[in-house]
Amino acid sequence: MNTAGDTKLGIAWIALCLALALHIVDESLTGFLSVYNPTVVAISEQVAWFPMPIFEFGVWLAGLIVANLLLLSLSVFAFRGSRWLKPLAYVFAVIMLLNGLGHTLGTIAGRTVASVHFARPMPGFYSSPALLAASIYLLFRLRTTAQT
């Protein structure tokens, strides 16, 4: 049975997916990989086991689009209040919250690591408030649906 809480959870899920879509556009238009790839190289030189890959633009963009479409396709389960989706929703919301915070803190610092500086704001910063707001909203909805 679909409840009002499930509907609000579905709306929150879609809101975060749309915020992620906006963020993908923001990052691709502002040259995010020009910061990301050198950061991964610098960290990998210090920490050999660092698991992050280097990306070419087309592969990176296609991967993000496919991932976001997959997440959007799961929205039907959010509207149904499917229990199995809730742990995934928590993970999605926390990762996007950290993503938004990372772009915000990077903008404040003007760098990611000591050797990777960039003109402020950091690429992807403009959509960070949408990621932060939508992540917090999804976490709030998950918390309120857990109480019902």
- Contiguous helical run count: 6
Percentage of β-strand residues: under 5%
For the record, give the distance between the C-alpha atoms at the N and C termini, rounded to a whole number. 13 Å
Q: How many separate structural domains? A: 1
* Helix content percent band: over 70%
N-to-C order of helices and strands: HHHHHH
SS-based structural class? Answer: mainly alpha
Globally, the shape reads elongated
Care to count the β-strands? Answer: 0
Taking all Cα atoms into account, the compactness measure Rg is 17 Å
Provide the low-confidence segments as ranges: none
**Biggest sheet overview:** none
| Global mean pLDDT | 94
The oligomerization state is single chain
Structure description:
Helix 1 (4-30) packs antiparallel against helix 3 (57-73) and helix 1 runs antiparallel to helix 6 (128-146). This protein has one domain. The protein has 148 residues and is mostly helical. The chain has helices at residues 4-30, 33-46, 57-73, 75-80, 85-109, 128-146.
